Amino acid sequence: MIVYIIRRLMQAALVMVVMSVLVFAGIYLIGDPVLMMISPDASELEREAVRKALHLDLPMWQQYLLFVNDALHGNFGKSFLAGQPAMGLIFERFPATLELAFASLVLSLAIGLPLGVYAGLRPHTAGSKTIMTGSILGFSLPNFWVGLMLIMVFAVLLPDLVPGWPRLPASGRGATVDVLGVKLSFLTGDGLLHLLLPAVTLSLYKGALIVRLARATAREVLPMDYVKFARAKGLSERRIVGVHVLKNIMIPIATVSGLEFGQTVAFAVVTETIFSWPGVGKLLIDSILLLDRPVVVAYLVIIVFFFVALNLVVDLLYSVLDPRVRLESRAT
What we know:
With 332 residues, this protein is mostly helical. Helix content is 74%, strand content 2%. A hairpin with a 2-residue loop joins β1 and β2. α5 runs antiparallel to α6, α7 packs across α8 and α8 packs across α10. The two termini are 13 Å apart.
């Protein structure tokens, strides 16, 4: 186990180095951030002074070496525009994005897993066909449209049409609570109300994916000999499904859920923009448009590290869900 983790950490270091080179080179070749930072009426001498202060007058390889040296000391530079440490700006907003992604994952599992298992156990019933039709809609409807419709229905129409219907908030994060210096909104009633609509918007696609995956894997597991043997022993259907079926379909579910969670953290910018959620996605888009290199590079380093750590957790979870999986063999 320890050898496997060490190998994965070495692979992660190599991935992060390659990623940082590609990202740094790509951003270096796109535009001049000085033009975004100072007035168009500034003289060329003033522009050169800003470039020199930010080390933008150096060749790309020297800028990259300076970045690596600072990064090894925990310094990813200051935002060109905000004048604050790039990591500080990202970590200030990262908990909001993690909270939204985790809430959407919990909703998608709570809804998609039981519906998918039901559809797999009774594939020819009207309920199963309705569930599968709904999953197609979950794949087809874009997030931005779903978010706008949820706002229109639950924040505008229903509260006006139905007396006493609660008006769900359509923007912001709501009240937060400090936990070890981290602001969390799901621990307050107002925060939960603000979290509901964006979390449902993000969970629609993931829930549809889990429904179809759970149905397919359940259909594969049911004809297996150990399920037939369990039925022959007279075990109840609840025990067969809960112990033999559900446990064996959780490995692909865990894999997909881990990857979808990472993708939600990295690419929740559309939903965050629609609901004015103060996450890191909007910060990234603004930084790309304004060529704020330190923020973009720092964000991508964090995301790559997050994905690597998430994949490691998923692989470790394999051995918990199925002891037959040997991590040592997966590392070779």
